[in-house]
Structures are given as C-alpha cells and as structure tokens.
Description:
Layout: H1 4-15, H2 37-42, E1 50-56, H3 63-73, E2 79-85, H4 88-94, H5 102-110, E3 117-120, H6 128-133, E4 138-142, H7 156-160, E5 164-167, H8 175-184, H9 186-195, H10 207-266, H11 271-287, H12 312-315, H13 324-341
Parallel strand pairs: 1-2, 1-4, 2-3, 4-5
Helix pairs in contact: 9-10
Amino acid sequence: MRKAGDTEVSFQTLIxxxxxxxxxxxxxxxxxxxxxxTQARLGTPVDRPVRVxxxxxxxxxxxxxxxxxxxxxxxxxxxxxxxxxxxxxxxxKFKGFTVMNETERYEALRHCRYVxxxxxxxxxxxxxxxxxxxxxxxxxxDDIPYSSAGSDDVYKHIKEAGMFVPTQRTExxxxxxxxxxxxxxxxxxxxxxxxxxxxxxxxxxSFINEKKYRFQNQVDKMKEKVKNVEEKSKEFVNKVEExxxxxxxxxxxxxxxxxxNFLELFGxxxxxxxxxxxxxxxxxxxxxxxxxxxxxPTRGRSPSRSPSPPSPWLFNKASPPSSPxxxxxxxSSMSEGDEDEK
Length: 342
C-alpha cells in the first residue's frame, strides 16, 4: 500500500511533464537489492518501487507506444517507469531517418501519463554499467526478437539474466504504417499543404508537380461549388415538391367541397330546383287567377234566399214605356240580367 508521499509523487507526475534523468539524481534511496519477478509481483515497500525500463525510438508517437508503456507501468503493484529514447544520430545509424527529431520525441514521451522519467540519448544495446547507473530492475519490451547492430536479438542477454518482462504489441498501428499511409496518399497531402500556404520548396515538390497540384486544387474547388449548387437545387426541388403536394391536397379538399355545394344547390333534389318550383307555381298563379264559382239555377235556389227586388220602372207610373218596342227591349234586357245572375 502506498503512502501519502508516493501519492504526491504520482500526482505531480500527472500535472507536470516527467523529468529528464540527467537533470535529477536517482531518487531511489533504498539499497538496490536484486529482485525476482515473483517478489516484484507480490509488491515492494513504498520507498522501494520496482524500477522498470522501456526504450525505443518513439517516432510519430501513437497509441501503440502509449499502450506498451501502460503495460510496462502496470506490470507490478509498485513500479517506477523509466523510458529511454535514442538520439537522432544513433537512430539514423542503426534504423533510418525519422520524421520527428530527437527533441520532439523526448517531449512526446515526457507528456505521456505512464512515464515517470525520461532518459535522453539512450544506448542502442543495454550494458551492465547503464543498468547499474539507473538501478534498473527489469526491462519491458515485446517478445519478438529485435535484430539490429549485428545481433539477432539485442535483448538476448537481458532475457538470459532474468530481467526481461514481455509486453504485447498493438496490432494495426505502428510508425511504419503511418508513414506508409502518408507515402500512399502523398499527392493528397502535398496538395493540401500547398493550399494551406506551404511553398513547393518546403514540400520538396518540383515546379511541374506544383502547377499540377494547384490546377487539381482549382478543379476540386469547382467540383465543390457544383456539388453545393446541386445540393441547393435538390433542396429547392424538394421544397417545391412539398409545397405542390400541399397545394394539390388543399385543391382536392376545396374541389370536393365545391362539388358537394354545387350538387346540394343544383342537384336533382337541390335547393335551386325547389326554389324554381316554388317560383314557377307563384308565377302560374299570378298569370291565371282562380275563377269565381257560378251560382246555381233558379229552380235549385235555396228557399232562404230572398227574391230579387222588382225593377223600379215597373212601379214607376210616371215613366211608362214609350212604345211596345221599348217595352219589349226592356223585358229582354231584364231577362239577360237574370241569366247573368244565374
């Protein structure tokens, strides 16, 4: 179990970059006694952490590097991880050219959360003097034999001494894979950086390729503009289709309503027909009024009906008819008047 002092050291590691080994003295104050892997896995006192060493080039620092360091850090309950980073001269001599220079690679390791200390200009092959100087208990690396510097495996003597602890490689990611992607898509990255303001000289691009890349960039811009116009036109067409669909739906609703109202008004049993029939009946009544009923003949008169009064001239003695012809005309006119009354 760790004490408060050890917790404080870990906390400082998380909020600040890991220190360089050549800037500090070895902080392991306890005597550096030889540990076995079994003893280390059981746990050690707080003031005697297991000092684990991992080395490499760490070019284009990526998640595969970080996972390997995480495994090295968590191999034992109480551990202190030292990471050795080889210099540019040594790397170019034994492995090849790097993308990042040594200073960039040192800084990348300092800011990894699992690293407690960084050793600059680490040796390509570990010597007993180096191991003793940094009081290293175990060396962590993947178990694949690493042939270099005229040796089939530079960690062979570490394995024979019982100081080697294997870690697992992360498949699908490596510095070589990243460089392969860049080489494969070189034209894309060159065009992108030219567009961002880098010069052809900085990119080591020839004059002809520069013109070709710039022309391709212009073509891509035109394609992007055409694509944007097509997308906008599609959006416009979709909006028009949506609006036309709504208009057609509203028109159908209104047309059904109009047809229903038309049939209700002008259909076979519509209100207009009833109105027309009513008005036709009124016009017929106005054009041909009803005749008054004729009276019954004299013989059939009701006894209660009073007889017609006699003509005044019959009782007027002062004005008799002047001649028989006039008298007969008067009688005939009276008879006609009676017929009219019948």
